Amino acid sequence: MAATRRVSPVAWAALFALLALLFRVNVPGIGEVELGEHAPRKHGADALAARDAAVTSGPWGVYDCPDKLYKVTHRPGGRDCLVLIVSKAGLREKTAFAAKRDYVQRMLERDGCVHLYRDTHPLLGDDYGRDND
Question: Least packed by Cβ within 10 Å: which of 22, 57, 109, 120?
Fold first, then answer.
């Protein structure tokens, strides 16, 4: 019978710490966010697109919501909105998805979310929320 090797608890802890670093992204306006498995498992490519948009599009779509969540929105070229929802406790991703603009607007208004980096609502205007003069 072959002998089995035990892996030390310290080695497991080091491995989990390394994996935690690999599954974190810097979301402008929020900070380092720990990614979860729910979003890509349930929402597939839409979740990955929402994550990418949250990281690359700057802090312009960050909302602070009284339900202890940050909601990061992005509207690429008039398409559906991409949404990343992050728990303020521990900065953990709760979900990420694509949704119709009207749905996202209603969600933000219903939840009493406050836009952190602009005086206007970025979903209301053209060109990612910037009104054309």
Answer: 22
Q: Show the domain range for 124.
A: 33-129
What percentage of the chain reaches a pLDDT higher than 70? Answer: 71
Contact of 51 with 109, CB cutoff 8 Å = no
Query: Closest by alpha carbon to 76, among 60, 58, 94, 57?
Result: 57
Confidence of residue 117 (pLDDT cuts 50, 70, 90): confident
Number of structural domains, the chain? 1
- Binning the chain into helix, strand and coil, the percentages to the nearest 5 are 40, 25, 35
- Taking phi over 0 as left and psi of -120 to 50 as alpha, with beta for the rest, 15 belongs to alpha
20 within domain boundaries: no
State the pTM of this model: 0.74
C-alpha to C-alpha distance for 25 and 71, rounded to whole angstroms? 15
